[in-house]
Write a structure and sequence with these properties.
The structure holds two protein chains of two kinds. Chain A is mostly helical. Chain A has helices spanning 2-13, 17-39, 49-68, 70-78, 81-85, 91-112, 115-123, 128-155, 159-181, 183-186, 189-198, 200-208, 214-240. Chain A has one domain. Chain A has 13 helices and no strands. In chain A, helix 3 packs across helix 12 and helix 8 (128-155) runs antiparallel to helix 12 (200-208). Chain A is globular, with a radius of gyration of 19 Å. The two termini of chain A are 26 Å apart. The model of chain A has no long low-confidence stretch (mean pLDDT 87). By secondary structure, chain B is α/β, with parallel strands linked by helices. The chains are: A mainly alpha, B alpha/beta. At the A-B interface, helix 1 and helix 5 of A face helix 2 and helix 3 of B.
Chain lengths: 243, 335
């Protein structure tokens, strides 16, 4: 399992792939960082890192499908899926190794953003406790998105289609919150409570406000676990049915 | 070593493999022969554990491929039709990765990778990106990969496709060399190749086993007493008419023009005794016999005969040869 994990990481870091994505992410992050600082004088917005993170997630969520699109689609197209599935590794381990490698890249991308609070702490004060909290929330939401992106990649043999499907699903995940807040759903309290329970954005808000709720932690972790399991089953199912 | 029992595979409504059973013995090279689309790759994919079967079992070294997948897969080195290589990796890096994937101990990885590269003569290419390699070299990298972890069973799906003649003979030599400590199942649609390296062959067509026999038997079957090759002068209509009048002639092929007024016929007989009758009938009708001989069926013809028949599985090729094919023209191109 470690061999596959290592190989997957190498495929990200021995190519410009991970660096370009990290650079793109930092670029987006720095734009909101700079605009937030410049807006401070107008007093309309308070500067806070959690806020920046919150805003950035809406951009970041669209980078994730690019990160995950190749994971299974490329294996299938290149015929290397045979190599993995005929190796002594079980499908569960294959999926986990790939998942963990993408999570590692994700952590790397998150780590690059540490530059901003570190820089800010030189000339100002940073509330590290709330920042750590938002980092945790960011990480957890990312886990679910990565799992979803990988699942979509395993459903198709084409990386581009996997990426497009991924963007649609990410859009859908974001839309869930707006949907929950719509007048239509609000007029049905039961439906509203169900939809908002699934809305990840709402849960992320707590993290970005510096609130660490066990409920949210369990929600994100179990959502990621469910999607990863789904991924395992979908690969097994495709093997057992016709190709 | 390997036991395949009643293997069936459906793709939706299509049946790719129907009720196949055979075994691969220890240190044996088993040829797996069939035209394109016969179900060879599907069967090999099932044996290797890539695809599960719809019905039936595959047991490798005592381990069931679906029940004890991990143990069974440790005994397998698989070279699929398309070598499973990552274009973005370097040869040595790729082989090290595969060795790790197969659970080779860390300390043994460099040595095993070195050995397999040497065996396939790709040591000079170790630093090259796989994407920049030619088809033949990619195939060799794929082969080297199959050898890692010293698996007892090698499954080679058309290992010589895309290689030039010199490389083909090299690969053949390698396969014969590997026989010492491996069981090998080797698929091909090229007969000469199979007869060069295999002791036994399984012939498959349209998902069904048509014959399981040794090469020795196969070669024996190459001369068939009941088929005659005749080259004669004179009009074809006349000759055919004379031949048809003889009792015991079951089939006459389309005359094949050799030169002006000289034709070749292939005649199938009920039994050997008809030979003399043919001879005398032809002489009596003043047909100039240029040559008359017992037909030598080439391996290709044996193969085509076997695969063109839609009958049931036979125990030996001899049984098959005694039958006449249903269609005189074969849809498969012999290579």
């Amino acid at each position: 399992m470690f061999a596959l994990y290592k190989k997957e990481l190498q495929s990200f870091f021995y190519s410009p792939f991970a660096y370009v994505l990290a650079a793109l992410f930092m670029f987006i992050f720095s734009i909101s960082f700079v605009t937030s600082i410049s807006d401070m004088t107008s007093n309309t917005l308070k500067f806070s890192f959690p806020n920046i993170f919150y805003n950035n997630f809406f951009y970041f969520i669209f980078i994730i499908p690019i990160l995950t699109m190749r994971s299974f689609a490329d294996e299938r197209r290149g015929g290397t899926e045979v190599l993995l599935l005929t190796s002594p590794l079980s499908v569960t381990k294959i999926v986990l190794a790939k998942f963990l490698s993408i999570v590692t890249v994700f952590l790397f991308m998150m780590a690059t953003t540490l530059f901003f609070p570190l820089y800010a702490s030189i000339s100002g004060q940073v509330m590290w406790s709330s920042l750590i909290c938002v980092y945790i929330g960011f990480f957890l939401w990312g886990l679910v998105c990565i799992a979803a992106g990988m699942l979509l990649s395993s459903l198709t043999g084409n990386a581009i289609i996997a990426a497009i499907l991924g963007e649609i699903v990410m859009e859908g995940l974001l839309f869930l919150d707006t949907f929950a807040g719509s007048a239509l759903v609000q007029s049905y309290p039961k439906l509203n409570s169900i939809v908002s329970w699934f809305s990840m954005q709402r849960r992320f808000v707590y993290f970005s406000q510096g609130m660490f709720r066990l409920e949210d932690l369990i929600f994100f972790l179990s959502a990621a676990a469910v999607v990863v399991c789904w991924n395992i089953f979908s690969i097994e199912k495709r093997r057992w049915s016709h190709r | 070593m390997v036991e395949i029992k009643n293997l069936t595979k459906h793709y939706g409504r299509n049946v790719a493999v129907k009720n196949i059973s055979f075994e691969i013995r220890d240190n044996e090279i088993l040829g797996f022969l069939g035209p394109n689309g016969a179900g060879k790759s599907t069967t090999m994919n099932i044996i290797a554990g890539y695809l599960p079967s719809t019905e039936g079992t595959v047991t490798i070294n005592g381990f069931d491929i679906t029940e004890q997948a991990s143990e069974a897969k440790k005994c397998i080195g698989y070279l699929p039709e398309i070598p499973p290589v990552y274009p973005d990796m370097r040869v040595e890096e790729y082989l090290k990765f595969v060795a790790g994937l197969k659970g080779v101990k860390r300390g043994e990885i460099p040595k095993q990778v070195e050995d397999s590269m040497e065996r396939l003569h790709i040591s000079d290419m170790r630093r090259r990106l796989i994407r920049n390699l030619s088809k033949g070299y990619k195939q060799r990298v794929g082969f080297a990969q199959a050898l890692l972890g010293n698996p007892k069973l090698l499954i080679l799906d058309e290992p010589t496709v895309g290689l030039d003649p010199a490389q083909v003979s090299e690969v053949r030599k390698l396969i014969l060399d590997l026989k010492q400590d491996h069981s090998i199942i080797f698929s091909s649609h090229i007969l000469a190749e199979v007869s060069a390296v295999c002791e036994r062959v399984v012939i498959i067509n349209k998902g069904e086993i048509k014959a399981i026999d040794t090469i020795a038997h196969l070669e024996e079957s190459m001369t068939a007493d009941t088929t005659l090759d005749l080259t004669a002068d004179g009009e074809t209509t006349k000759t055919v008419r004379i031949l048809k009048d003889i009792r015991g002639v079951t089939n006459i092929s389309e005359p094949e023009k050799i030169s002006e007024n000289r034709y070749h016929y292939r005649i199938e007989l009920k039994d050997e005794s008809v030979r003399n009758e043919i001879m005398s009938a032809l002489v009596a009708n003043q047909i100039g016999i240029v040559e008359m001989s017992m037909a030598k069926l080439s391996l290709e013809q044996v193969f085509l005969k076997v695969t063109a028949n839609s009958g049931k599985k036979r125990s030996s090729l001899q049984d098959l040869l005694d039958e006449t094919p249903e269609s005189p023209e074969n849809p498969y191109d012999a290579e």
